[in-house]
Amino acid sequence: MRIGIGADHGGFVMKVQLARKLAEEGHEVVDFGNMVYDPDDDYPDFAIPLARAVATGYVERGVVLCGSGVGASVAANKVSGARAALCHDDYSARQGVEDDDMNVLCLGGRTMGTEVAWDCVRNFLSASFSGVARHRRRLEKVKQLEQSGSRINRQSEEFISQGERE
Ligand code: RB5
Question: What is the pLDDT of residue 138?
């Protein structure tokens, strides 16, 4: 599978370890950075491009890390079409795909050990969306909100630029 991976300084070491394991298992790993350890870097700079790559289909799934995994999930979920969640256990990592069609797994480099993180990654990648009607219905409600949000954002941008012209 073609998998995107990314991390800020809080997840950098674990990203290197997970990327190595993924490659060993035969996955194609696309690294969205950071490519070097930089204690001053910012998780949105990696989480957002990675989430966009998932949403556009450039990669099939994404794994993104920061210190806690919280900031990465907040940022990734702002991208339309990304369904990101922070998981600390393999059950959530699998069920999040089966029921919620999660396509970006968020992990905390400072809150979990590499082996637990690796279990999460493996469960995330081996799962597929069940397609069951009730789960589709729920996702449709999320999609509707996402689409109305974009409409509202566009309307506010038009309103602001109109105000600027006046
Ligand atoms: C960076 O120090 C830290 O705040 C970040 O990696 C992450 O944990 C944010 O949620």
Answer: 97
